[in-house]
Structure formats: structure tokens, C-alpha cells
Amino acid sequence: MAETTLTAPPVKRIPKPTKPFIPDLVYFEPDALEYPKGQKIMEFVKARNIEYRMTTSHNRITNLPGETEQEKYRMAKRTLVVGLRKTLKFDQSKPSADYAIPISTGCMGHCHYCYLQTTLGSKPYIRVYVNTEDILGAAKGYIDEKTPEITTFEAACTSDPVGIEHITGTLQELITFMAGQEHGRLRFVTKFHHVGPLLNLNHNGHTRIRFSVNADYVIRQFEPATSRFEERIEAASKIAHAGYPLGFIIAPIIWYDGWEEGYAELLKRLSDSLPPEATKDLSFEMIQHRFTKTAKNVIQQRYPKTKLEMDIEKRKQKWGRWGQYKYVYPDEQQTALRQFITERIFDHFPEARIDYFT
Ligand code: SF4
């Protein structure tokens, strides 16, 4: 009788969970320590033996460690600055909401295409503001001004607030505040899955939490230091289960060899993974990739090996509201992307709503 050789089944590698962000260095404005949130962050820092320094202003951090510009940039992305928000005039936040509610600025993620690289200029470190009551007071003013119309606030215009929630707790305060506002609504988007502290809050359906998702190729190539796709989807299910209105932002939509398979697969994976309760009242937003000449230069310096395609010759020029041309896809490509992804969304989620394609 012939001997049978037993071969072990292939071992499936389970990737490690993405850990919550812990800064390497923290700066405090002295005034911040007079607020409970400032004190709480100081306790967090001391309990972990994180190096900290005092600074006169959260806008003037000049002595970050690092020999080269790239090293300084990497260090800045691991530096937290704790201060007070002085400007309480909110910026507009179209098309996602009426106003940007300023709770933090900067992000620990390393998405190659991220617009914060240019909008934050030489201040890529992460700033968090501890005077939340002042910020909520200003939000209340905006709500009252527009009542009985609804006023919406976007909390993720200049950062990814979920990525630092375990340090600040600010989203919990915002969600709870907005639950009591008949005419106020909150929304934010994230690429992080650390949503645990948000799950048991009384949100009253007034906060829409959206997850930023993309084709596997885009996530792997261009979104280092963020949570994996599966982690984001698992977090989305938890958020839906907790009764929050849920949404997805597909951004940036990128034209690459195989984009049709990539985006078809994305929608299929979403539909396979989401529990039925997550598919009710589901919103989608779609943003095609765009860049300015300034952004292209910065990206090439900071991520010199990036495969991000930024050939101006292949793009359509569009006047941007920041007083610079931005480069989007030519109309034909835009239409193909929009139509293809829209069809896939409605194939899998017939009850979903598409807020915009831009
Ligand atoms: S997670 Fe968002 S805010 Fe952070 S680097 Fe990536 S795109 Fe920018």
C-alpha cells in the first residue's frame, strides 16, 4: 500500500490589530492645564512616561527632533500639542456640512494624497483643543442663528478625531451635546476603528459616523498608519449596531489599471460584511482624486517612492477655492468612475443615498 504524505494546511496569517495612537512627544500650553481635559491628558502622558514639554503657543512648535526635513515630518506626525482653541469662528465645510467644528488639527496617518500636507504647511503635528465648552458654545450660537433649519457640523475637516479619541474624549462630548440639539447635527469621517468609547452614548440619531473606504489597491499603496479595511468594516458594523446613522466616503477615487475590479470588489466586500441593520439609512459620498501643483511637490518630497499618479498632462484643470488650480480627472474619466461606482452602490444597497460626487 502506498504511503500517504500528510501536508499541513496553509497557515492563514492573521494581521495584528492596528494599535491606538500613542504620541512620542507632547507639548502643553500652560493654560491648557487649567482645564479638566488638559489635566486628563497630562495624566495619560505621565502614566505612559511620554516625554513632554511646555510651549507658549500651539502654533509655534519649532524645535522638533530630527536631522532632515523628512525625519522632522515623521516626528511631527507623532507629536501631540495640547492647547486652547482661540478662534471660535467656524469655517464653512461644503459639501459635507454647514460648518467645520474645530476640535483637533493634524493626523498621525500617512496617507500620501492627504490634503492636510499642504493646508497645514509647516505645522503637521497634531493639535488638540481642551476648551470644549467654548467650542460647543460657539456651535450653539450657529444652531440658534439658523433655527428652525438644521445646522450640520463636520468634526473631521482638519484631522481624524477617532484616531485621538482615546486621548481626548472630545467626540463623546460633542455627540452627547448634539443629542440634545433639536436643530443640530454632527458628522465625522474616519479611517480608524477605535470606536469603543462611542458605542454606549446617547446620540439620539443626531450624529452620522462615516468610514473612509477604498479599493484594496488604494488602501495598501497610499494609506499607511491607518486601520485596515476589515477593521474599519468591523467598526462600521458596531456603529450601526449602536444605532448611529452610518455612511461611507469613497475617497480619493483613483483611476488605476484594474480600477473597475477594485471598486466592484470594494462594494461587494462592503455588502458581504455589513449586517442588515447597517444598510438602512446608509449614505455614500464620492470624491475623485485631485491635487494642486503645491501638493504634488510636497507629496514627492515626503513620499518620494509614491506610486500616486500626478501627471498634469493627463488631468483637467479646475479653479479651486483656495486660489489655486487643482487637477481632477478629465470629464470622460470622471463620468466613467461616477457611473460605474454609483451602479455598484445601488446594486448592493438599493436603499442607500448618494450625497455627492465631486
Ligand atoms: S487618515 Fe485622513 S486625515 Fe489622516 S493622513 Fe489619512 S487622509 Fe489625512
Question: What descriptive keywords fit this protein?
Answer:
358 residues, pyruvate-formate lyase- activating enzyme, eight-stranded mixed beta sheet, 11 helices, 15 strands, 32% helix, globular, binds iron/sulfur cluster, rSAM
Describe the structure in your own words.
This is Spore photoproduct lyase. Keywords: Lyase. Pfam families: SPL. The longest helix has 18 residues, at 331-348. By secondary structure, the protein is of the alpha/beta class. An eight-stranded mixed β-sheet has the order 4-5-8-9-10-11-12-15. Strands 2-1-3-7-6 form a five-stranded mixed β-sheet, covered by helices on one side. The radius of gyration is 21 Å and the shape is globular. The chain has helices spanning 36-47, 69-76, 116-119, 132-146, 165-168, 170-179, 216-222, 229-241, 259-273, 293-302, 331-348; strands spanning 25-28, 51-54, 79-83, 92-93, 97-100, 104-105, 126-129, 151-154, 184-190, 207-213, 246-253, 282-288, 316-319, 325-328, 353-357. The chain has a single domain (25-357), classed as Alpha-Beta Horseshoe (pyruvate-formate lyase- activating enzyme). The termini are far apart. Bound molecules: iron/sulfur cluster. Iron/sulfur cluster binds at residues 107, 109, 111, 114, 116, 160, 191, 226.
Radius of gyration: 21 Å
How many helices? The count is 11
Bound molecules: iron/sulfur cluster
Physical arrangement of strands within the biggest beta sheet: 4-5-8-9-10-11-12-15
SS-based class: alpha/beta
Give the % helix: 25-40%
* Largest β sheet strand count, sense and barrel closure: 8 strands, mixed
How many strands appear in the DSSP assignment? 15
Based on Cα principal axes, name the global outline.
Answer: globular
CATH architecture: Alpha-Beta Horseshoe
Distance between the termini: 68 Å
Portion in beta strands = 15-25%
Mean pLDDT: 94
* CATH class group: Alpha Beta
